[in-house]
Amino acid sequence: MGELSSYxxxxxxxxxxxxxxxxxxxxxxxFRRAREAGGKLVLRIEDLYADHCRMDYADGIVEDxxxxxxxxxEGPDVGGPHGPYLQSLRRxxxxxxxxKKLMEKGLIYPSLHTRKDVxxxxxxxxxxxxxxxxxxxLRPEKVEKVAEPGANVNWRLRVEYGTSVRFCDGRxxxxxxxxxxxxxxxxxxxxxxxPSYELAVVVDDSAMGVTEVVxxxxxxxxxxRQILLYRALELPxxxxxxxxxxxDAKGERLAKRSDAVSIAVLRxxxxxxxxxxxxxxxxx
Length: 284
Ligand code: GLU
Description:
Largest sheet: 3 strands, parallel
Bound molecules: glutamic acid
Shape: globular
Structural class: alpha/beta
CATH topology of the largest domain: Rossmann fold
Strand content: 15-25%
Strand order of the largest sheet: 1-2-3
CATH class of the largest domain: Alpha Beta
Oligomer: single chain
Number of domains: 2
Order of helices and strands: EHEHEHEHEEEEHEHEHH
């Protein structure tokens, strides 16, 4: 892990709502770690799932990040050298070739699933979103090679049940997850023609040369899945640093609360960036 030479991190917001102090904690950690390492930071807008994402949210997120003093270094898709990467522009160039590679290696198979499965696969599986372990018995025996993912089927990565995936998280320490117990064959490509969150993130973190992934600790289990995807795609595995979630006095994850205070609202109330970052560091 951490095989790549100089530090590169990323900010990867999903523009499905306004930024709140839970995000501020994670993004500030990513920013500080990149700056302390003398490395770079990219901004990637995870706007894969059009049903949930809005460009006005993306604009608001960029504005809030700048207001908080969180800056980034590159992203060629829009807005010149400092603009963000947009996942919605990377399907043909990045995600389809990855699907093709996995298909040709015989590591994925098509499976019929509902709209709910697609929705679940296209968004990062935060706390409480866990899916049941996919039963091995539902795997097809033979998979024909096809040229395109096609409509009406999702594609799952065949994982070896019983395999243990270990990694040392920069904050949470040693972790171990077992395929078949903690997660099963998971969706990497969806029937709407777009990659799942897990595939897109692995492909992008690798293409962007990310050496350390900083994100919330509710994605620790996703990291185990993603490590199997890095291996399947023969890509170097980055280091990981999962931040603690901001919770309220009852222990509920802030992002789950409908009244979670957005950065924009705190700004309107007259809070300074330092006050917001203080809340993000120490909770509410
Ligand atoms: N875009 C994801 C989210 O906002 C974060 C994914 C990641 O950092 O890997 O929940």
